[in-house]
Each structure stands twice: as C-alpha cells, then as structure tokens.
Amino acid sequence: MRDFRWPPPPDGGPRTWGPGPGAPRTGRPALPEPETELVTTPHGVRLERLVTGAGEPTTLFAHGLAHGIATTRPFGSAVAGRKVFFQFRGHGRSDTPPGPWSYLELARDLRAVADLSGATRALGASLGAGALCRLLVESPDRFDRLVFFLPAVLDRPRDTSARPWLTDLLAAVESGDASAVADVVSSELPPAVRNTPTGWAYLRQRLDHLLRDGLAPGLAGLLDATPLRDAAALATVTAPALVIGCAGDDRHPAEVAEALAAALPRATLHVYDRPGVLWTERADLRDRISTFLNG
Questions:
Q1: Cα separation, 265 vs 47, whole angstroms
Q2: Which helix (H) or strand (E) is 146 found in, with range?
C-alpha cells in the first residue's frame, strides 16, 4: 500500500505516486448534509439533534468520543421507524457548559433527547454506550431494546491507549491546521482504507465537521471517568440487549464488551475477530443491528 498523503488531491481520490492512472476521478457530487436543529433540554443545555425516518418505534443513537451525528448515522441505515441522532455536550453545535463533566452529565443529555423525542430504543457507541449504561442504573426500564457498540469502559478505569489520540486531536483541532487533524483522524481508518477514495471521503467529512464546530477541551477529562461504580448495578435491566465488541481494538477492549454482556440479564454478545468493523464488516453489522432493533 502506498503511504498516506495530505492534503488530498482536488479530484477527491488519493494522490498516487509512480506509474498509474492519473485521470480525474468522476462521480456524483456529495449530497448536502441534512439540516439539524438545536433543542433546549430541561437541564438548560442546548443539544444538536437530527431526526430522520417516520413511524414507530423511535430509536435514539448516541455517538462516541470526538465523533458525532455523521459517524453514527450508518448504524441506523436499515433500522425501521423514526431515528434520532444527537451530539453530546462539547461536540458539534451543542453547548459547552462549565465542567468538569462525568458520565452523569452525559446520561442527562441522553435522557433529555430521548424524552423529548419519545425514543423507546437506544444504541450507544463507545462513549455513548457508557452514557447509556449510566442512565440505565437510574432508569433500568427506560428503553425496550438496547444496542451497545464497542463499549470502551464500564466500572474500571480505561488504560492509557486512548489518551495520546484524544490529546493530539484536541490540539490539532484547536490549531485549525487541517493537515494536523488529518494525521490524527487517519488513525481511525484501517491501513488498507487510508489511501482509497472511500478513506479520503471519510477524512473530508470528519475534517469539515471538526474544523467547523471544534471540540471542547473538557472532553479530555472523560478519559479518567467510568460510567459505573459496579457493573452489578445493571442487573435490574430487563430489556433485550445486543452488545458488540471486537478483538484487537485497544481503545475498545473486547473484555469490556464481555463484562457488559455478562452484567445485563438479557444480553446477546457478538465479538468480531478484528478491528475496523465499520469498514470490514459493514454489511454484517448493518444487518445485525437492524435485525435486532426491528424485532
């Protein structure tokens, strides 16, 4: 594979070096981003929200740390009914109230959007999975069905593998240097995808959002937080749950997914055998999530 290059070529594909096709890449222009709205929660924090689809049920999707609506939408592509996506505090256009923040504040954000939207099902990815766990301790019967995608931490502090990534990303976003942000974001991609048109499209989307909206520096404090004191607190959650992990992901250890599935009375666990499942197992992941939530 050729090395990753930045900035991207103007034709939208990777700049290759040495012999090879050099004609401009063509294709349909990117669709405009859907219009989001700011909703005011009962606790006074305005949160960015996107509502798509129609009918019942309504499913809420909660994103991971330093991600947002755009990277969460693929989870709902085949899910029936109304779908609600939002940005936690400190992300996107959502407010950045004074910190420090814990998973209690994130759970409050999640609950508010769920209540305002009438959501009866929820999917939490990484950080969103932790916030969902925290909410369920106080309201174990809040949702009818639950999906946890790559939970990162439960009741034990996470290791330090995510710290350099987030520290570097926050610094790069603060600097406004697109190439610096791209260098950090590219680590989210499997090596085989980084220098492909699909990889460039993902980078462009992530950079557009991060450089436009920024990230709150207070997010760094969440790396030291845990959603729960004891995973046993989830024993009263009776809703069916799907827990998805993958082996070899340092930021989302499979052991966390296994512990969460063990703590939930009606959980089904699926562990993929390698990281990057959004790229390498997209069709299976889409089918697995939609089959569970549409059931």
A1: 32
A2: strand 145-149
